[in-house]
Design a protein that fits this description.
two-stranded antiparallel sheet
Length: 172
């Protein structure tokens, strides 16, 4: 009898972590699944992505890599209102979902990781997270600048290169 009661205790170090993971994911604290997010796509390339809420709704374009039909790596999401450029996200995407970066809004920057559907939505991001967000955004702006230069769009390439310098200065 004692063996039946105490024999299972040896398996606890294996069972408890597995049970904890199952509980966390079933309660939704293990991370948002891609199906829980609002997916959009670039009107020209049909590359799919989740746009941060700060970009608001409207036609949004992705400049960057598109792997398996989803925005990936460093680049820019830019909302356009007719012929006018709207707010932009510069940063890193993974399988169509923003990871970290900066949103360039008319009233200033929002920097940080993607959480709860937006970038930098938390009250005050960790200082290192904010620094990382601006560095990655600067790299993304340079990547977008190179894209525009390859298309012989010198004006947009210059604007993105200058923005990269400005974003980099935010880490000082």
């Amino acid at each position: 009898m004692a063996r039946r009661v105490f024999g299972g205790i040896g398996r606890l170090p294996v069972i408890v972590p597995i049970a904890l993971v199952v509980i966390l994911y079933s309660n939704g604290t293990g991370g948002a699944a891609p199906t829980d997010l609002h997916w959009s796509q670039d009107p020209g390339t049909h590359c799919k992505f989740v746009a941060p809420a700060s970009l608001t709704s409207g036609p949004t374009f992705w400049i960057g890599s598109c792997i398996d039909g989803k925005a990936s790596g460093e680049g820019m999401l830019r909302r356009r209102d007719g012929g006018q450029a709207g707010p932009a996200f510069f940063g890193r995407m993974k399988e169509g979902i923003p990871e970290i970066g900066v949103i360039d809004l008319a009233e200033g920057y929002r920097a940080g990781s993607f959480r709860d559907g937006d970038i930098g939505g938390q009250a005050e991001p960790e200082p290192q997270n904010r620094i990382d967000a601006f560095r990655i955004a600067a790299e993304a702006a340079r990547s977008v600048s190179a894209h525009y230069a390859a298309e012989n769009n010198a004006g947009s390439a210059h604007i993105c290169e200058e923005l990269a310098k400005t974003l980099e200065q935010q880490t000082d």
